[in-house]
Amino acid sequence: MAKIKSLEDLKKVREDAQRDLKVRRDTGTRIVVGMGTCGIAAGARETMHAILEELEKQGIEANVETVGCVGQCVKEPLVDIMQAGKPRITYGNVLPDMVPKLIEEHLRNGRVIEEWVVGRVDDSVH
Amino acid sequence: MRELSLHILDILQNSLEAGASRVELSLEEDLVNDRFSITVRDNGRGMDAAQIARATDPFFTTRTTRHVGLGLPLLAAAAEHCGGGLHITSTPGEGTTVEAVFQHSHIDRAPLGNIQGSLLAFVMSDTVAQTCDLSYRHRVNDREFTFDTADIRRELEGVPLSHPMVRNWLKGFISEGEKDVYEAVP
């Protein structure tokens, strides 16, 4: 049955991932996606999957997390990007088709996409 | 919500916010009796009778950032519009069970939709990745697909569930299981 084959695959996945983890560990980049009722209704699930796919495609390491409602429901899906030593940037109304540009500009080129920003915390300690 | 799987993702988050370390999600599609039920059982902090009574009131929430909570009221309304309803049982300190029942063939019943996406989004959330396990069961007539992140975690020997390689495996594993469960449906 398919399931048993999959569990065998998992052992292989584990071995590969263990090797990979030695290289990985803390990346210093956290991406937080709002996943409350408002976020989900606005499409945050698809946005989150787009982020995961794009990170993988571009080979960028980041921890992706979800949070509940943060109170700016009209701006959902909300995506926060936190990088060590830089201000925390909140992007609003982030739809899946915006994600490649977001990852490319913010994470790869280090440029904040000002027209999408809805919030900023200039404290580098999160 | 356009898909039942979005409601599911939403109410699963309630369990996390209630501090659950274990969440059981069960989907039962009984085409013979024309019934679709969604059950979420957690071991979170639970609710007392007064909180249960208000849980489907949109102007009640345990959250302190705002005064409205729409997750359960939206699910209750969806179920009630489809010849079913929402039942909540809970014991403070022990946990909560939410069951939503729909008439399977009801014209207004939203499709289950991308359940793989909801399960992955839930499992990828930091809390689940670190401190909470999900047990999943999807039954369609007499076919069943089940998994438990506790089993997967054990197999992984310390590699996090959120690792990209594990995520890809999970994606394939869940997609296969979901496809299999519908195999006998015409």
At the first level of CATH, the class of chain A is Alpha Beta
Shape of chain B: globular
Q: Order of SSEs of chain B, N→C? A: HEEHHEEHHEEHH
Percentage of β-strand residues of chain A:
15-25%
Low-confidence stretches of chain B: none
Strand order of the largest sheet of chain B: 3-4-2-1-5-6
CATH homologous superfamily label of chain A: Glutaredoxin
Query: Largest sheet of chain A, described in full?
Result: 5 strands, mixed
Rg of chain A to the nearest angstrom?
16 Å
Oligomer: heterodimer
Give the mean pLDDT of chain B. 90
Helical content of chain A stands at 40-55%
CATH architecture designation of chain B: 2-Layer Sandwich
Which class best fits the helix and strand makeup of chain B?
Answer: alpha+beta
| Count of discrete structural domains of chain B | 1
Number of strands of chain B: 6
Your description of this structure?
The complex is a heterodimer of chains A (126) and B (186). Chain A has 126 residues and is α+β, with helices and mostly antiparallel strands. In chain A, 42% of the residues lie in helices and 20% in strands. Chain A has 4 helices and 5 strands; from the N terminus they run αβααβββαβ. In chain A, β3 and β4 form a beta hairpin. The radius of gyration of chain A is 16 Å and the shape is globular. In chain A, 32% of the residues are buried. The model of chain A has no long low-confidence stretch (mean pLDDT 86). Chain B is α+β, with helices and mostly antiparallel strands. Chain B has one domain: 2-Layer Sandwich (Heat Shock Protein 90). Chain B has a 6-stranded mixed sheet. In chain B, α1 packs antiparallel against α3, α1 packs parallel to α4 and α4 runs antiparallel to α7. The mean pLDDT of chain B is 90.
Layout: helices, strands, pairs:
The complex is a heterodimer of chains A (126) and B (186).
Chain A: H1 2-23, E1 29-34, H2 37-42, H3 44-58, E2 63-67, E3 79-83, E4 88-91, H4 99-108, E5 117-121
Parallel strand pairs in A: 1-2
Antiparallel strand pairs in A: 1-3, 3-4, 4-5
Chain B: H1 4-17, E1 22-30, E2 35-42, H2 49-54, H3 71-80, E3 85-91, E4 95-103, H4 115-124, H5 126-131, E5 133-140, E6 143-148, H6 149-156, H7 164-181
Parallel strand pairs in B: 1-5
Antiparallel strand pairs in B: 1-2, 2-4, 3-4, 5-6
Helix pairs in contact in B: 1-3, 1-4, 4-7
